[in-house]
Amino acid sequence: MKVSIIGVTGYSGLExxxxxxxxxxVEIAGVYGTQNIGKKISKIYPHLSGLLDLPLKAINHSEIxxxxxxVFFATxxxxxxxxxxxxxxxxxxxxxxxxxxxxxxAESYQKWYGKPATHAAYLNQAVYGxxxxxxxxxxxxxxxxPGCYATASILSLAPVVISDLIEPESIIIDAKSGxxxxxxxxxxxxxxxxxxxxMSIYKINQHQHIPEIMLQFNQWNTKIPAIQFSTSLIPxxxxxxxxxxxxxxxxxxxxxxESAYQQIYQDKPFIRLMSNNTMPQLKQVIGTxxxxxxxxxxxxxxxxxVVTVIDNLIKGAAGQAIQNLNxxxxxxxxxxxxxxxxxx
Amino acid sequence: MKVSIIGVTGYSGLExxxxxxxxxxVEIAGVYGTQNIGKKISKIYPHLSGLLDLPLKAINHSEIxxxxxxVFFATxxxxxxxxxxxxxxxxxxxxxxxxxxxxxxAESYQKWYGKPATHAAYLNQAVYGxxxxxxxxxxxxxxxxPGCYATASILSLAPVVISDLIEPESIIIDAKSGxxxxxxxxxxxxxxxxxxxxMSIYKINQHQHIPEIMLQFNQWNTKIPAIQFSTSLIPxxxxxxxxxxxxxxxxxxxxxxESAYQQIYQDKPFIRLMSNNTMPQLKQVIGTxxxxxxxxxxxxxxxxxVVTVIDNLIKGAAGQAIQNLNxxxxxxxxxxxxxxxxxx
Amino acid sequence: MKVSIIGVTGYSGLExxxxxxxxxxVEIAGVYGTQNIGKKISKIYPHLSGLLDLPLKAINHSEIxxxxxxVFFATxxxxxxxxxxxxxxxxxxxxxxxxxxxxxxAESYQKWYGKPATHAAYLNQAVYGxxxxxxxxxxxxxxxxPGCYATASILSLAPVVISDLIEPESIIIDAKSGxxxxxxxxxxxxxxxxxxxxMSIYKINQHQHIPEIMLQFNQWNTKIPAIQFSTSLIPxxxxxxxxxxxxxxxxxxxxxxESAYQQIYQDKPFIRLMSNNTMPQLKQVIGTxxxxxxxxxxxxxxxxxVVTVIDNLIKGAAGQAIQNLNxxxxxxxxxxxxxxxxxx
Amino acid sequence: MKVSIIGVTGYSGLExxxxxxxxxxVEIAGVYGTQNIGKKISKIYPHLSGLLDLPLKAINHSEIxxxxxxVFFATxxxxxxxxxxxxxxxxxxxxxxxxxxxxxxAESYQKWYGKPATHAAYLNQAVYGxxxxxxxxxxxxxxxxPGCYATASILSLAPVVISDLIEPESIIIDAKSGxxxxxxxxxxxxxxxxxxxxMSIYKINQHQHIPEIMLQFNQWNTKIPAIQFSTSLIPxxxxxxxxxxxxxxxxxxxxxxESAYQQIYQDKPFIRLMSNNTMPQLKQVIGTxxxxxxxxxxxxxxxxxVVTVIDNLIKGAAGQAIQNLNxxxxxxxxxxxxxxxxxx
Lengths: 344, 344, 344, 344
Description:
4 copies of one chain form a homotetramer. By secondary structure, chain A is an alpha/beta fold. Chain A has 12 helices and 14 strands. In chain A, the strands form 2 sheets. In chain A, strands 3-2-1-4-5-7-6 form a 7-stranded parallel beta sheet, with helices on both faces. In chain A, strands 9-10-8-11-14-13-12 form a 7-stranded mixed beta sheet. Chain A starts with a strand and ends in a 15-residue tail after the last helix.
């Protein structure tokens, strides 16, 4: 299978290149961007020297459809809503890592992303690719790959939301992310000197991943009215660490909660439950597509606390995109994703 | 005024040395420890070369009482409960940075610290030195300096606890700390390789600072039954970043909350409220005794979120100890604490 | 004494504010920049809240000369060569932290800085303010504060250069710096994700601090023909760590070298020599104006190795500028510089 | 092929596990240690959960020889000199990642490692496995895997040493390493708080990798009398960054040097030469077995500078060990080593 990557020079694009190098069934046919056209990507990123020496090309829909079988968008939000249309119209498979096709309502996109959505007809064709909950979907043509915070947050609470075990209005999600999540864009907030030895909080209850979390939660459980959601930056390169809180419903025991997690996640090999009240550390998933989850219950305050860790560039972006590709193409689900975490 | 420091080679002890160097009214008379006796402290810590060349001495109560006017304990918990007794019996002023005199009940100390408490008679003589809420107390002889997490957590919610504006059972405190908070003790958890690029959570609802937070909250508001409290390690050297959540009581508006913070903190110069919904970053207090606090309210979930940052070695240890010294000795409250944050 | 600061929002400007806050003889009269005019500096930098609430002003020479007694330029190179002229013409004291007045030749400036120098007449009025080697110079009106790499490199080898103990063509300087040295300018090279867990080398034998090092070395010893000089970035916020190598002249012993360092630095309290072949760590000077130096000699290869550490924002910028101010105004040399290193 | 790993819980042992997971020809038969016997390794290291669930076993020579075809020692120096003997006597293949079999003289081992060497008869059977310079050696039974600093230092200068292009007494090697190089052992020097924002230098001209570098250099060029060699710690987890300096011989041009590097490294796919005077960054090899090398020549000082970067746990330990395994077993040289660097 041949794939093309649009937006290859961003962090998610580079991670697609990195993971696909070890995918036994996939070859990268072309890499596309808007700058440095004609330059070999290994000249821009010397770490790729000898590994991927393709030249950067300007986006050309016909060429991409001729030379490859699927295209990844690893672009910032706002690009694929326009550039993907020609692919969609041609039923050419698209996996979009941006937020442009994740919401089913143009109003919601405008509200949370601050720009106009693509046409509703295209939004409706998109499948939200929360890969661990998706069955083989070889008929899908447009997959909206979930956001990094959304992936960790949804997987953090899915079993209790699905099984209706928590007070619906009690959800608090306190998410922390490393800097690669913010992308390559230069800003004061990503200057080394501002990040090192620092921690900051941003977009409180205003993060654009909130609506996709709510959509998924409500698809499972219509009673959840809203979530409290905040995002912080911690001085690490990769990784999302989500601490979720919720109150158990009356008469629900922690054992029921534990067994809901075990049941719902038992056939999902990329999700690993910690045993015996231990909690995951961020580093134990870095470099992989794993989601590690730990549970703790405080009977005094009747509070369930769930700690969830992922590598934002893999499970939160390129890895889940490949997981979606594997589902689409009916490849083994570990193809291109069979790695041991980089520890230490 | 002359002071002695017991436990000078730990991080809090070193920070006392650093801050007292700029205190116009205080001179360090002697430094005490259990190792390297007779060796100059500047030989162990070359950063002190030319600044403090005193030799380390073995603890000698008579000598300390003869040569100085007050003694700081910058020792791990478990030391002052025994070693301080002779000073207490002699009415010699003690400021204890450890947890040994913070709880008023021997049972509680045994439960949370896992070792026997000192005699209840001594516990009762101790004053909990939450310095921003203490008036000049020249008669105090034994001051229990608050814990780092406790200081940030209590100051985070004091106004709404005092003014009874929140649902008493709704408090969730999600605290993150840098590594210096764990002290100099060697452990796998403090090895650079385990901490760098990592984040981990520990002592969930079991941290020994919980009882002192509850004592203070209940002194202000007897209705608070319990708190949900977790502590995480982030890869920074200094700093505590506390995110607190609580539900507002029915009919309480966010404006009332804001005005409670303004009123209660207006005469406390070491507490700085952020304006206009902005939130503090960790680094903006490092190197100082400041506590910076930001507020955010989500009307959809009726959740108040408070972000509080301190330097754990200063406001959370040595700085608050000097603030307590200034109160005790009736010095200007900024003496030894008049610094601009180290930014960047 | 009243001072103004031009370029206050850069890292060196902020550090001037920080240090001058504790200077007993100096008051900041005005702060000047090119952006955010009219806005209080504490609104841009919340760490200054309650500490310096002056508004940013657009540069106005008459106002500065009227309201203050001296002006600091904490601007990038290329600014003071033009903006300082009016002060120079008026004999108004200027301490320039940029490179614009450090070289005595316009050709050299053009070559190393890649832009035209100011008029030679102004270059000639400038005094190179290597503060530890300067005597009280109350008559100076234009002080060119040395570069950060230059300060560490020159102090690293001054005694053997002055005493002519090394082979003149054998000097190799391998310098490493933290990221604050590169300033606030946004670039890919200063993005957190590019710096964290990384080390890179740049401007090999092309760094603009080379000519000022050579000027100073040749003023002491005309035989030095050139130096090998490289600069690397390491993932720390502050600090310069310089490793210098040189071959001893025939018949010169290491004891002679040691005694040259002791003699030449014995009356310079900001320079601390390590004892007994121990070497300084970077962190032992951070937050201070100290230069710590360690010596090692390898008889097998006849190589002297000198390790020198400074805080680039203090000794390498704002601190040395204040040291120059103290010399100029005949203040105590520790005024505004009397700090214990921030360790840990 | 089945292999066993002795010392699996150290950083090099864990890295062997990580890399071998993706080796198509190798299976891990058993993992051995001295602590936690009987416990599953995934209980000690949760990142291995679901990936390697073998129990830790106490060392048992017969069992190892029965169940596997080769044994790796990933132990600290001082272990294999005794524990490997039984394997050697049985002609059972050993790849030793420690320093115990790297030196050909017992006196030298005693001098540099400070403990007695194994019997000279065993030392003589060992092959120094500098893998890029070794041909397929299916007859070797005892391979001494090179040290991390040694690998980077030797590869840094091999072409000019082999081709005799530099002044033999002019070599200076300034090496910097991340903290994983020091291993898991707890010490003040590896405490996060001592490492973060710091840089320090240690073992100047006393590092135990010096003799193996000299042995290899002298095997190629008997004229090299000694090297100046220092090692520093920088705050990163993985990576070695070596800056080497040497003077060119009279009449040798930089072009000759460049062509020596190109010729000697052209058939070594794990060594990548940077083009056009660009220099490698540390991060561009992390996660891989690559050695990236950049060259710079300063005609004014006649100094060649070479910058070499490796991942100390891979090329400097586990990766080179697998490269040696591939040579021994005649596997494809990229087996288990076919990764794209983890960037960012």
